[in-house]
Amino acid sequence: MKLELYMSAGALVICICVIIFMICQKRNIIKRVSALESVIDDLNHQSHKLNKTLKEINFEDDIKKIVNDKIEPLAKSLKEVKKITTEYRNQKSNSGIIDFEERVLNLYQDDKSESEIANILGVSVQQVELILSLNNPE
Fold first, then answer.
1. How many angstroms separate the CA atoms of 42 and 49, rounded?
2. Which domain holds residue 126?
3. What is the number of domains present in the chain?
C-alpha cells in the first residue's frame, strides 16, 4: 500500500510539473503573440498613414501641370518650327535657291573652303557658312 501511495504521489507530482510546464509555455506563447500583435498593429498604422499621404498627393494634377506648363509650349514651338521650315523649303524650291545651295554643297564636297566658295559664287563667307550649317555637310 505504501508503494501505491508513493506511486500516486509521484504521478501527482509529475502531473503538477507537466501542468506548470504547460502554463509556462503558454505564457511564452502569449508574450510572443502579443509582440507580434504589436508589430502588426504598428504596420497597419504605418500602412494607413502611407495610404492617407498618397491620397493627399495628387499625381494627376502634378503631371497635368507639367504637361501644360512645359510640354505643350514646347510642342507648339516645334510645330511652329516645322511650319516655318516647310514654308522655307517650299519658297526655296519655287525661287531657285535650291540651285544656289546645291552649288555651295557641291563645291564644298569638291574640298573647297568656305572662303573659296564665297569667292567663286560672289557671296559672303557668312552666307556660305550658313548654308553649310543648315545642310550639315560632313
1. 11
2. 96-138
3. 1
Q: Residue 120 and residue 114: Cα distance in Å, rounded?
A: 10
Torsion angle, alpha carbons of 91, 117, 108, 106, to 10: 50
Residues, the chain: 138
Per-residue pLDDT tens, the chain, 138 aa: give them. Answer: 788 888 888 888 898 888 888 888 888 888 888 888 888 888 889 988 888 887 777 777 778 888 788 888 888 888 888 888 777 777 666 655 567 788 888 899 998 899 998 998 888 899 888 888 888 755
- What is the reported pTM? 0.33
Residue 120 lies in a domain: yes
Inside any domain, residue 134: yes
Would residue 107 count as lying in a domain? Answer: yes
